[in-house]
Amino acid sequence: MHNACDAADVAHDTFVRILGGRHAAQIIEPRDYLATIARGLVIDRYRRHAIEQAYKQTLAERPEANAISEEDKAIIIETLVAVDKALATLGERARRIFMLSQLEGLTYQQIADQLQVSLTTVKKHMIRALTECSLIVASL
């Protein structure tokens, strides 16, 4: 953690998550469970920080005429973090297919050739990924 405030936030969030859980009283190894929850929250914080930094770097490279308001920046960062979480739940192959399509600009056929999978597999994973992203964006 970068500072004591971040560590305190993670500790607070860890206990909130544990106490809000349905089976908090049934935890057999509380110390291990606590460490696992805290580790996941720290990873989430680092992932969010990396996304924010990448976005801010992209904004810094834009001309001033295209400046974005602070409110819009916050909304965009929240959306990016939510999409990142959704992609993390998809599985490695689906995430890779989505990234090749959306970030690399490859066609479905090019993705199928590169990953040595069928075109139907690529389409299936893209439908799943796009559905997840649509649900996330709709909920914001």
UniProtKB/TrEMBL annotation:
What keywords tag this UniProt record? Sigma factor, Transcription, Transcription regulation
Q: What is this protein called?
A: Sigma factor, ECF subfamily
Residues in RNA polymerase sigma factor 70 region 4 type domain copies: 81-133
Q: Which PANTHER family match?
A: RNA POLYMERASE ECF-TYPE SIGMA FACTO, RNA POLYMERASE SIGMA FACTOR FECI-RELATED
Q: Which GO terms describe its molecular function?
A: DNA binding; sigma factor activity
Q: Where is the RNA polymerase sigma-70 region domain?
A: 4-50
The Swiss-Prot or TrEMBL record describes its family as follows:
Belongs to the sigma-70 factor family. ECF subfamily.
Query: What is any one GO biological process for this UniProt entry?
Result: DNA-templated transcription initiation
Q: Does the keyword Acyltransferase apply?
A: no
Cross-referenced Gene3D superfamilies: 1.10.1740.10, Winged helix-like DNA-binding domain superfamily/Winged helix DNA-binding domain (1.10.10.10)
| A Pfam cross-reference name | Sigma70_r4_2
